[in-house]
């Protein structure tokens, strides 16, 4: 709720704060139990920072975070440790998130034993079950991460995240580094495991094809702000925000006869330490008008469960 995460910029000889990178700038959204909410946008739009802030890897600058109705943003980091297992994160590059000196068995045992979730005997049994649930075998438990392919390593990361029975899993570009054929295998695995463990996913991605396949709802971010939020079918079939329209027009169509008008966005994403006045998208927006420079658009529920921040929908 009203989440902000600013990173100070230090400058001068005294290393004083001379400005802020507004990585996440006042966003509000919810994720329902057992749902997949995707956050999309170009790199630097604040989607990863949002994920890390939810996980309390970063302290929010302001705003509130709730899990099952409990405000977790106020819990000091030390006390949060017991709840830490409830929110897990899976990263893009499993090679850097898996300690290369640990066997798969130790990688999976570690979270169970550090969170004191099982005795050693029970933990060993759980590890055997979990490795098979992600499509690998018990025989592979005594191998090291480098002995596996990228897709297999991502299966190991998934097993390590899920073995502690989390409630929420944040997937940050979790399939982006994989070949397309492997991507779909991992996505299908994620969907299967979500059903089995009743997981809630926050899926962070720049790939709109993948997002469409997997999400119940989609949030479109730009310069740290939420531009549009709605059910997947509404976002894809009836995008409202000019930025969402531009992003969707850039997806290659599978149907060669379908004529799609490609909306070209000019210029780069502005510097997040010096965002434009009014609407953050106005410098690149084909529909920008006077009001866009003067006033920041409100985030309004334009249709049922379909939110948008754009003056075109608030006149
Ligand atoms: Fe474009 Fe104005 Fe809407 Fe922003 S508020 S997206 S600049 S039309
Ligand atoms: Mg990122």
From TrEMBL:
One Pfam assignment: ABC_tran
CDD domains listed in its UniProt record: ABC_NikE_OppD_transporters
InterPro entries: AAA+_ATPase, ABC_transp_ATP-bind, ABC_transporter-like_ATP-bd, ABC_transporter-like_CS, Oligopep_ABC_C, P-loop_NTPase
One MF term in the entry's GO annotations: ATP hydrolysis activity
PROSITE patterns on file: ABC_TRANSPORTER_1, ABC_TRANSPORTER_2
Keyword vocabulary terms for this entry: ATP-binding, Nucleotide-binding, Transport
Residue span(s) of domain ABC transporter: 1-248
Gene Ontology biological-process annotations: peptide transport; transmembrane transport
PANTHER family for this protein: D,D-DIPEPTIDE TRANSPORT ATP-BINDING PROTEIN DDPF-RELATED, TRANSPORT ATP-BINDING PROTEIN
Protein family according to the UniProt entry: Belongs to the ABC transporter superfamily.
Protein name: Dipeptide ABC transporter ATP-binding protein
Source organism (scientific name): Exobacillus caeni
